[in-house]
Amino acid sequence: MLWIGLPQLFIFPIIPQLMKRFDLRVLVCFGAAIFAVSCFRNISMSPEYSGPQFFWPNIVRSLGQPFTIVPLSALATANLAQGESADGSAIFNIARNIGGSVGIALVSTVLTRREQFHDMRIGESISIYRLAVQQRLETIAATFAAKGFGPETAMQQAYASLKGIVRRDAYILATNSTFLMVGVLLFFGAAVVWVCKGTAAKADAGGH
Question: For 142-151, how does the pLDDT look when each residue is reduced to its tens digit (9 = 90+)?
Fold first, then answer.
């Protein structure tokens, strides 16, 4: 998480200057697209993934996130009259909080449903009558037997271990699917932002 937050400390100070030079839609679209790319870098995870494999996706995510926070808030109130800005900002914050809650609930639901789906699909291919499954159970049971467990207990531990492997792989595949969904939604958001009314570059306006 450090590599998500630390680079943003160097990016946030330049965001106000970029907001004066570019249409806010450009910044939000850029940030959402970069954020989506970082999600797509996590759609093929495996059990071998650990800290080093998350380094670059987190770096990319940290580069995109600042462009979707401040500019999006400014875009929501950019074309309001001065007397309406406070109310508009309040409504935007309420909508953002509701959207965040809905987003978290959606991600949690997709993660749970996809985990159940993958657990069922993987389980369909595991049968005690398959030679590969029998050999895997015997190998795991032999490991527990070498630790002092009796034959029956060792086999029970082997079944539990195999079940844990299935659950682990199902969760990883579900997480991959969730990252894919978030990435697609971010690309969709990057396109939808162009429906908003544009904002003129303040630096150009000040020079006339």
Answer: 999 998 889 8
